[in-house]
Specification:
about 475 residues; single chain; globular; about 75% helix; two-stranded antiparallel sheet
């Protein structure tokens, strides 16, 4: 089993080929980087540099009044909160730590670049999710996502086929991915609480599973809980980071100089490690912001919103929140800590050591609690993502929905009690396969998203002329 997981991980994330660079350095290009980076560039050009041009409009749409007309539906902002709950998770804490540990400070720059490029990809897939959404007979409101727009690409309306092979593969990949992530969540939370409070993993895990079960096994508790948790956890983490930055303001010029110097390999080229800098930043950025993977569109499709492009703009803004804001917070906490304190450490041990330096014992406790919230919200969010994919595979019935929730809860419990090093790889494989199948449809259907964007911009101009 582990051999199979490693094979697919290397196929998706391993180096397909290597480009030699001056100074003995090289850049290894993986299949996922080869797909997502050019795609991000392509969609950025096609949307006429949407992340920069329409950033003020993203903020305006995110702050406008919620208006839901369909019973059981969620608003566009609530869909953004759900996708943010899953984006803002362990990848923003442990993932950023791993990227900097392996690739140095320069990895942060390449995380920023992938976020800016990924915003355009996120816009396209979220807009398509809106264009091809369906009414949800079980939960109320709407449902959709890549499985549904892939279906419409390959299956004609008058066809007797009920499912598309590519859509089925996407849905199955998603369900595998989210089970793997459930185990990682359980393990990260139990480890953090054991380090901070010396609480045995069994107690932390049992409480986590119990609270999660109460929420996910109820029909529509997910959105209500995330509406409360996500703004609070992201807000507190951001404020704490601002405190760390202001108390270490004198070091900021040297930190940013280090980020940019290492990003372009001015120091790493000599050591032959520029490829590690670029790839670790790009890979972790792609995994964290999820743009192109097809996860966020599962939430975007559920939104009851006045124009499909609006949800696209909201999800593009979500990528900015995840990587440019929250991931940068974790990076600053790390890079403002003396290197001698963190040498030889990894994962949560490294992050908690950094927080202990900045804020003492309170910092260690804070990180444990914030990881609990990040992870908990991620778990609830991924089960929301699972809903339309389960429905696509097994039809509209409560049995299949409930069985998958129970499976995810079991994975959460198992992960909390035992650390499986290959589980991170399983999550990466799931994301990788989802991305491959999603991109098969994203390019041929992207014209519809661009048309929707043009229509939305025409409406904006008409509204501006009235005033």
């Amino acid at each position: 089993m582990i051999t199979i997981i490693r094979f697919f991980y290397n196929l998706l994330w391993g180096d397909l080929f290597t480009i030699p660079l001056p100074g003995g350095s090289s850049v290894g290009i993986s299949l996922l980087v080869l797909i997502l980076i050019p795609s991000g560039i392509f969609f950025t050009i096609r949307t006429r540099f949407l992340p920069f041009r329409l950033f003020p409009e993203m903020i305006r749409v995110a702050t406008e009044k919620k208006n839901v007309s369909q019973k059981g539906a969620i608003s566009g902002v609530q869909a953004l909160i759900i996708s943010t709950a899953t984006r803002v998770g362990m990848g923003n804490l442990v993932g950023v730590v791993a990227a900097i540990s392996a690739g140095g400070a320069g990895a942060v720059f390449w995380m920023w670049v992938t976020a800016l490029l990924g915003s355009s990809t996120a816009f396209v897939e979220a807009t398509l999710a809106q264009l091809y959404k369906e009414k949800d007979p079980l939960y109320g409101g709407y449902r959709g996502g890549p499985a549904y727009y892939i279906h419409h690409l390959f299956i004609k309306k008058d066809s007797k086929k009920k499912r598309s092979v590519i859509a089925v593969l996407f849905a199955v990949s998603g369900l595998i991915c989210w089970c793997g992530i459930s185990q990682v969540i359980g393990n990260s939370v139990s480890s953090a609480f054991e380090n901070a409070f010396q609480i045995p993993p069994i107690y932390t895990t049992a409480l986590l599973v119990l609270v999660a079960a109460v929420i996910v096994l109820r029909k529509n508790a997910t959105v209500k809980v995330l509406d409360i948790i996500v703004p609070i956890m992201a807000g507190f983490y951001f404020l704490l980071t601002l405190y760390v930055i202001f108390t270490n303001a004198g070091q900021l010029p040297s930190v940013f100089r280090r980020i940019f110097e290492e990003a372009f390999g001015l120091r790493q080229a000599v050591a032959g490690s520029f490829g590690a800098v670029l790839m670790n930043g790009a890979k972790r950025g792609l995994f964290s912001n999820e743009a192109g993977s097809g996860s966020a569109p599962c939430a975007a499709a559920a939104a009851d919103i006045s124009h499909p492009a609006k949800e696209g703009l909201l999800q593009a803004f979500g990528v900015f929140i995840d990587t440019i804001v929250i991931c940068s917070c974790s990076a600053m906490i790390m890079l403002l800590t003396p290197a001698e304190l963190t040498d030889g450490l990894a994962g949560m041990d490294l992050l908690q050591t950094a927080m202990n330096y900045h804020m003492g014992e309170f910092g260690v406790i804070f990180i444990a609690v914030i990881l609990w919230l990040f992870s908990f919200s991620t778990f609830i969010g991924i089960l929301f993502y699972a809903r339309p994919n389960i429905a696509y595979l097994f039809g509209d019935n409560w049995l299949s929905q409930t069985l998958y929730k129970l499976l995810a809860l079991v994975m959460l419990f198992v992960g909390g009690l035992a650390a499986y090093t290959f589980v991170w790889d399983l999550g990466d494989i799931g994301v990788g396969l989802m991305t491959v199948f999603n991109m098969i449809a994203l390019f041929p259907l992207s014209g519809r998203a661009i048309e929707s964007l043009k229509d939305y911009e025409k409406n904006i101009k008409k509204t501006e002329k009235r005033f």
